[in-house]
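Follow-up to my earlier ticket, as requested here are the two runs.
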Amino acid sequence: MKTNFTQALVLTSTLLFLQSCAVSSSTAQPEAEADLKPGQGSSGNSFVVLHDGTIQHYKSLKLVTGIFSSPHLLADAKTKIPASDVCAYQNEDHFALSQQNLVNGRRSKSAVESLPGFAVRIATGKLNIYSHKYYNGSGTSEELFIQVGNEGAILAYKPGLLNDILKDHPEAFNFFNSRKKIAPVSKKLLATAELFNKAPLISRN
């Protein structure tokens, strides 16, 4: 009973989270994706969300990149899944979603640690953080995105936007605005998100 409830809850949040993916009545229920830590999946807990909203589960899901083949996912060591078919996916390394879910983000056809143009979730909770890494011609650049909960828009990170989110969480707000230099920016955002996600909301009303 508890397992069914958890799966139903996860399905609801996942489908709301992937707003640009259509919801199919025949969609399979994803397994406890919301309980996974960023960058950590588990054997048998890999899945792919297709553009029609269908969720397909696999025992293993590997990201394949190389000079002689276009980046794709290889499911259960035999099934090739083109990047163009995927809206989001979870494997043992990370949870990632297509750039079509990102608001005001840079469009990219290159890949660094995910499928081309996909953003990887690096923090999860009340405040989610996504990292979109891409080749800039001479090296690697990183664009960060923030999202409140699983239903909010995934917006390009800006200090003012994050400050507005943090305003009712003094500890996270003060840490983010401290003069302590932390590089890269993603490291400071991760620490801020950790404080925000564990802190109770303090109303100013």
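Run two:
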Amino acid sequence: MSSPAEIAATARARSLGLLEQLALQTDAIADRLASGLGLVAWDRERVIGGVQRALWALHDGPRPELVGGRARVIERAAQPLESLPLVWEQLLRGRVVSLSLEPSASAAVRELLASEVAAFAGALILDPLEGSGDPLVGVRPARSRVAIVLDDTDRELAAYILARVALRRSGADPRAVKRVFVSGGAAHLLRHLERLWVGAIAGPPDDADAFMGPVDADAAGKHLAALDGWAASPGVRVICPGGQLHRGGDRRRYLAPALLEVAWPVADPALALDPDEWWPGPALFVHALASAAAIDVALSEADIPVERRLVIGPRRRRTRGADDERPRTQGALMIERVPPGLPPPRPV
């Protein structure tokens, strides 16, 4: 077996070759993402592009610290291709790396790495035997997020960002946002959201104009049952009722996204469970609170850790002696950055 320095040197020497193989296989991988996960075109591009950027960053960036040892990586079914840059990073650190696949996970990463196994002389192991005992370094299962829209945030920009993070993969993305806390008034945000929720196009993965793809029967059933329960709950105003969409000649299941304004705290204890973790379909709950301070209290009471918070809006001014480390989302709303299948920006 090679030494840590030899493993890292081999990974550096073969980085460009791996990137070339990924580029050559892009169309085939995209087809798998479409058929396996129902990802529409813009989401397939996002997944593959993200992996390519991560690999280029490893190739062009500083050398990772050489640590040696062994590591185990898992390709997650709901997080396609995320294992590839992690495997390569561990090889660059001089580790012996094993890759295993969850049931129903895409085999694309394993197939890309199969041609590299011989070059690493036993340092790259595909489909290891269970119980190998190697330390797991990832891929960690992703968790859903909670969004925060602050007082001075552009409401239209926030609505487009929320559409991307709430409706991606028809709500099945493991990093999806199901709830948003809003300070400074929610009326204008709700008007923008309603226009996007009504105008979002659901269609088959091979439709270049679709924003959302199909869902499986189990997810559709849970989504529709959850909608019925929430709609009858006190303190809930249904803005977009969601429901099942019907496309002539297409037997796949499509869901209209649901938009609900929900008083906080939730009035019905039976529905107080965290929808960020269990709601399977495209839905967003809007909680309007009086201030950013009230949002901080609500997030603390709901035990939402910082890493699950997506703050949409300008960065707060930093005060002397204080560090605001909460994540922020900023950027201009540009027509060419709006995914296919969403209405273009316009005054509301």
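The only thing I checked on run two: The first strand starts at residue 70 and ends at 75. Let me know what else you need.
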